[in-house]
Amino acid sequence: MYYVNPNIKNLYRTSYNESRKDYIRLDMNENPEGLPVQFFEQVMGSITPEYVAMYPEMTSLVEQLAGYLDCEPSSICLTNGSDDAIRLLFEVFGESGKKVVSVSPSFEMYSVYMKMYGMIHAPVIFNDDFEVSLDSVLDSIDSDTGIVVLLNPNSPIGSPWQEHEVREIIKKARENCALVVIDEAYHYFSPKTFIHCTNEYDNVLIFRTFSKMLSIAGCRIGYIISNEELVSEIKKACSTYPVNCFAIKFAEKILGNPQIIDALTEIERQGREYLLDKLKKYGYEYHFNSGNYVLIKSKKDPKQISSLLKEKNILIKTYNQPVLTDWIRVTTGSIDVMRIFWEQFESVENG
Questions:
Q1: Predicted pLDDT at 302
Q2: CA-to-CA distance for 169 and 14, rounded, in angstroms?
């Protein structure tokens, strides 16, 4: 047998192999309907054979993002979606044997990559009220800590982090020579940002993506924002062309048309409020923490609900973690999409 990195050999991975293309996808926090059709066709119409034939050029998008975020281009690194940003984080800064502090449950890929690079997870577990204390996070950060991960907001549970909480965590991490990642995948749904902390502290990285509100998950594009020193180290580990030409074109056009972002934001808000109103009216216990998803405590077993909805061409998310076994997670979308979900959800709950 040829050599296999033991961290990889012993790593357990799950994968979703079934096609999702004919379903209403409310399971992975994508936009169920995507970009407005007219805008999509306009962007596609600007893509020429010559453009596709060239290797991707990222400089103009980086400069556009720098103006949009009011930072220097040298503070930005484009990535092949958030997954690539997480991989680069651990590849560059992940010291084998060191701890990674994060809340749990959270986005699974952080756990995957920390194991891949030989780090040790030190999770701060949510209680049954979906809460963790700041003191518990601070107490977990010590001289053995290499990286602290904060998702703002955290999917699927928890409250958005407050300014004073984040600053205390950054300072405690800095005292112990640890980096702090603030994952803002759900920015726009939750517009509070901590980008300003990258100017004040030398141990902070911000992750962003175009997959959620900006609705181009299939293009695979995101970016890291930090100080020039950390970004320059990350770029050493990047592939030569981490982002494809289609992703670049769509990202440029979206940033250049802020009315598209405003429209997407309003469409999701209206649909989410429709769903929350229904949940309140019919007495459902739910949890919403400013992302494009809502946790619902269903009357029937969540796995059964998921199976029955799948038969009706609707996908939702369920969990195996003890704190979440009684809950389903539903991605929010337009009123039309939420109306379809609600009608079918009521049908399987009461049928």
A1: 98
A2: 32
Cα gap 317→295, rounded to integer Å: 9
One DSSP character per residue, 94-141 reads: --TT-EEEEEES--HHHHHHHHHTT-EEEEEE--TTS---HHHHHHH-
- Edge to edge, what strands does the sheet with 179-183 contain? 76-79, 222-225, 204-209, 179-183, 145-151, 99-104, 120-125
Position 327 confidence tier, pLDDT thresholds 50, 70, 90: very high
The number of C-alpha atoms within 13 Å of 21 and in the hemisphere containing its C-beta is: 3
Closest of 207, 217, 213, 224 to residue 247, by C-alpha: 217
Using CB atoms within 10 Å of the CB of residue 128, give its burial: 0 to 12 exposed, 13 to 18 middle, 19+ buried.
Answer: exposed
Six token digits for residue 91: 């590849």
Report the amino acid identity of residue 60.
S
Comparing C-alpha atoms, which of 155, 142, 159, 160 is closest to residue 101? 142
Residue range 219-244: mean pLDDT, rounded = 98
Please give the Cα distance from 64 to 275 (Å, whole number): 36
Buried b (16+ CB within 10 A) or exposed e, 85-97: bbbbbbebbbeee
Q: Is it the case that residue 10 has pLDDT exceeding 90?
A: no
Q: What's the predicted TM-score (pTM) here?
A: 0.96
**pLDDT above 90 (res 125):** yes
Is the omega angle on the peptide bond into residue 258 within 30 degrees of 0, that is, cis? no
Q: Is the backbone peptide bond immediately before 153 cis, with ω within 30 degrees of 0? A: yes
Which class for 185: exposed (0-12), middle (13-18), buried (19 or more C-beta within 10 A)?
Answer: buried
- Judge whether 242 and 76 are in contact, CB under 8 Å: no
